[in-house]
Amino acid sequence: MYTSFIILSIVLFVNNNLSVWAKEQFNEDLTLRSLSDGKLLAHFNFTTHVDVINPVPGASLHHYGLFPKVIGQVLQEYQVREMHLTFTQGRWKYDEWGYPPEQSTGTGVELWAWMENSTRVDNQWKSLTNTLSGLFCASLNFIDETITTEPTLSFQSSSSSSFEKNNNILLRYGSLPHESVCTENLTPWIKLLPCKAKSGIAELLNAHKIYNSNFHSMSIHAKSICANDDCTRRIMELKQTETSVLDPVRETSRRDWSLKEVFDRVLHGACPVADNSRVHIIQDDSNAKLSPELNNPLKGYDLKEVHDELDIRMTWSENSFHYPLEPAYPIISANRYFTGYGQERGGLEITIHNRNDKALPVIYYDSIPWYLKLYLHTLQVIVIDEKTGQQQLKEKGDIIRDMYYQPAIDRSRPTMLECQLLLPAKSIVTLSLDFDKVFLKYTEHRPDANRGFDIGSAVLTAQLPNENHTIRVYTDTLLVSLPTPDFSMPYNVITLTCTVIALFFGSVFNLLTRSFQIIKEEKEVK
Amino acid sequence: MLKSFFYTLIAWSVLFTFYVNGFSPSKEEQIEGFFSQSGHTNNWAVLVCTSRFWFNYRHVANTLSMYRTVKRLGIPDSNIILMLADDVSCNPRNKYPATVYNNAARILDLYGDNVEVDYRGYEVTVENFIRMLTGRVSPDTPRSKRLLSDDRSNVLIYMTGHGGDEFLKFQDAEEISAYDLADSFEQMWEKKRYNEMLFMIDTCQANTMYSKIYSPNILATGSSKLGESSYSHHTDHDLGVAVIDGYTYYNLDFLEKIDMTSDKTLKELFDSYDPAKIASHPGIRSDLFKRPLDQVKVTDFFGNVQSIELTRERYPLIGADDDDNNEMNVSLYKYIYQNIIEEERNASTLHLEEELVEKETIQSEQKQQFRAFNVKREEKSFIHWIQSLSLTALFGFIATVAFGFIITSSMSA
């Protein structure tokens, strides 16, 4: 009897060590912050973390618990190390709101992924965009080779695992500035959460309120990385964030807010599978009164202790809200715009403000579609010193330390311009380029051709002083009107030509072949 | 006299028994009645809105109303292909963001919280539509964008937008003609991609769009005939646009009163069309459709209803291991399967760890699966047949005997 017991325990011990073991963790938190211009910034953050130990090296995960199976399978099928997908509508006002909690604020859809290096990378990127388009009900399949770029300096992989061989992964970036975001994109995003929208912080995600805001951005950051050399330990992480800037002043002309008024919902407790579920309130203004009271402002409200209802309310004792006159400028901000006039040529300018005391290196990334032909030799750098207001045309080498330029190939790939700039202290640097507009074939225009074409945001990557992470600053998207033909002209030409030919041919044929003969009429006999 | 009496008695009783037996349905007929008359096993819906721009709000509302109806009557999102050419619910001009209404009273939000739009914006093109219908999509196309119907699927195709004589305009840039549509349906028929199809179209001069269809089992209906325009029903003055078209409004009027258990037929739906109210003459084309319209249920196309019939008899279940009849004994299969696995394992050279893992998984699967039951089969014996004869049969038999006796006695008398 004892021998069988010993054998059984050995068998179980061996089983435990040799089977696949996965540890899953889910955390959720909400950060609410009242901005200086009376708006409310709500940032939802859901993180699912899986630590898989698999005896077979390099094997993929097959058992899914909290981690959504669709994302896990997508990452493993297309050999994606890291994927970032963001859906944004609205403009993030850097001048008034500072830097966002989540970096990607370019309007439309932005997708970038670090993928394993292989000969099939481009096919896998295409499959990835198509699969994600089906998953999120967005037309991500339009991110094809005419939009995709491979940035070299920007969008570095955030995984700092030294075991991954970083020269074996490739970056692909694509963005669709004109993609709309609506409930059909939010619904599959919510379905990736373990508790969906039934409990926890995700209960507040009311589409009718979120899509009624000044800015909203919803993103998925997924990672699948090996944690040791032979890849028997794998870490998979899914971070879902939703950032909204809501405007209580628009409804009531007061900046008082409560969860019930802003989201039309209240919190009923934590998600049962969450390890941590918290609501943090960042209070910048000491005049504001927060209810219910917070014992520890750093820790916020713990939803695990809430059993019936939690409605957070912040009130001010003023009569109505007065907008602040002075915006709070951030250290780095950028502004990109078109110059010139007409439908033949134009110019592109980007103005970068550096309000720091010291010179700051910044990486500027821009991707222009092929139908704007940029001329790199017209690149000019102008620096305006903030103190003196003096403007000088600088030698390119002074400001531009490094440049990667990919010229466009018609209907095949876009222009990509990446510069490493050293911005002087307290200055405004302007880069300008000229371009020609291409006359497109009439089938290449969109159905609403007179609207024009959208150009995706430029991205500035910088490491701010006193911060240990890089930030990305996005410029606005631009709208360019290319020479648009009159689409009724083919019909007009066909009709006119056919009429002319019918008349001309008909008349000439008649003239040539018709002959008149005299017919004698017989007189009737009376 | 006695001989003739007996002959008559036997003849009458035999005839009567056969006659009475014909009334109680045999097992085969009972099972046949379980499946619906049309022979379809699943339902698909393809809902297309082809118009772009804010002022075509009503076309998006039409399509979303049909989406809501079809979902309410049971067709899941995986079987619905929804194509919306423009986004009106999150359009900056929409006073009520993330909502679409089909009525100025604004009681019902069609967009809701759980909408799945498969093709949107610039993806709604004639090429994508025809590729989706015929199944000739690129290999990367995700599953939600494919029409995965088979030869037992009833497909509902609803299209709305701006159209004319034998054409339908897609997004202000291209057109699909009635011939293209007819050829696509013929390809679908040849590839066995539908069992029966209901084609519904709400545009100006809509009846011309289905005039060229030549494939079997297609029922078509349109909102207006050649030379007539279709009109919107009413405007919401807060939104500033018309919110629903007349033809679709009256269709919904009928369909909103239906639920999954309804028995209403398509004939009743088509009879409810009033050209005076709709302001145009809707048409119906049923020459290619085999079944008569008063036998086609509305839920055959608009819902996903499985026909359920209750039986009078109970089916007793016995434990699989108690069943002596070995051909259906599940535990016997389990035993055979285990033996096969044992043999394979002994023959190959597996590592110890993998064996243990496999053994563990097999054991856990066995624990989950094998709680099986068999249906107790009836023993076919004469006594059971006698017992199964219904009361009417017995009464009829006695009545025949008595009647025969009376007749023969009166004849011989």
Automatic annotation (TrEMBL), chain A:
Segments passing through the bilayer: 491-513
Protein name (record): GPI transamidase component PIG-T
One BP term from GO: attachment of GPI anchor to protein
Coiled coil ranges: none
Gene Ontology cellular-component terms listed: GPI-anchor transamidase complex
Cross-referenced Pfam families: Gpi16
Source organism per UniProt: Circinella minor
Keywords linked to the UniProt accession: Membrane, Signal, Transmembrane, Transmembrane helix
Keyword Nucleotide-binding: no
Signal peptide: 1-22
UniProtKB/TrEMBL annotation, chain B:
Pfam families reported in the protein's UniProt record: Peptidase_C13 (PF01650)
Signal peptide annotation: 1-22
Coiled coil region boundaries: none
GO molecular-function terms, A-Z: GPI-anchor transamidase activity
Keywords: GPI-anchor biosynthesis, Membrane, Signal, Transmembrane, Transmembrane helix
Keyword flag Aminoacyl-tRNA synthetase: no
InterPro entries: GPI_transamidase, Peptidase_C13
Keyword Membrane applies: yes
Stretches that traverse the bilayer: 385-407
Pathway: Glycolipid biosynthesis; glycosylphosphatidylinositol-anchor biosynthesis
GO cellular component, one term: GPI-anchor transamidase complex
Domain of life: Eukaryota
Catalytic residue positions: 162, 204 (nucleophile)
A GO biological-process term: GPI anchor biosynthetic process
Family from the record: Belongs to the peptidase C13 family.
Name of the protein in its database record: GPI-anchor transamidase
Annotated source species: Circinella minor
